[in-house]
Amino acid sequence: MTELEFPTSLGTSTAEEISLLGQSLAGDLMGKVGFGELAFWLVALRRPTPGETRVFEAVLVALADHGFTPTAIAARLTYLSAPDSLQGAIAAGLLGGGSRFLGVTEDCGGYLHAVLEERGAELPTDDAAWDALALEAVRRTREKGRYVPGLGHPVHKVEDPRTPRLIKIADEEGLHGPHLRLFEAIGRTHEQVLGRRLPLNGAGVCGAALADLGLPVELLRGFALLARAAGLLGQIAEERRRPVAMDAYLTVDRNAVHVDPTED
Questions:
Q1: Contacts 24+ apart (CB under 8 A), 131-134
Q2: Pick the CATH number of 49-250 from 3.40.50.720, 1.10.230.10, 3.40.50.880, 1.10.10.10
Q3: Is the pTM of this model over 0.90?
Q4: How far apart are CA 38 and CA 52, in angstroms?
Q5: What's the pLDDT tens digit per position in 99-122?
């Protein structure tokens, strides 16, 4: 009989030892590797440099919590309904990570990556050339009737404070790469096509920064969800200390008004 094998580069264990990424979990990793560094390593299968770790963890911090967003409200209401299911409350919040909240990180990173892939190996060398590339990308996107991911924010109408800060951190670490440069150029040029000025949002700049770290653009939403899981745990902890979910539920329920289903 052929012995079955299931190859993995991640974790394995025996009765005496736990191995992760080819390292001894207890001897080489615990107390020596930060969680953000490990999360990067698990996906990229290489240990990030200190600069990459700083940028990566700045992204995680930027996406962890942003107040009473739909993801936070969903988690709190689920916890109200099922306080015995902490995992259900966190899962409910994570399931709301889509094209309007959190998912923009992946959407923007993928969008920028596609524009750069189409451009090929010869990238712009100055701001004017980056602006020309960005302007053409925005114009084509608008002609297709689509939105440019990473533009606009429901709260930060002028500037998302996370955006310039993350760009500065990437610049300080020598990781201000082509995705961030294209994203900045979109910020400078989109008004010429859209007819109004929108801020570059934090979720979008996070996607650009992660793509510049060489992480797979198809997995960028996962990093946003990883960050938000921490924020949701904090939301639930606060719900236990200072509950608001019941008030939110009763406010909607007690103000529900019946309307004729045949009327618009």
A1: 131/185, 131/188, 131/189, 133/182, 133/185, 134/182, 134/185, 134/186, 134/188, 134/189, 134/190
A2: 1.10.230.10
A3: yes
A4: 12
A5: 777 789 999 999 999 999 999 878
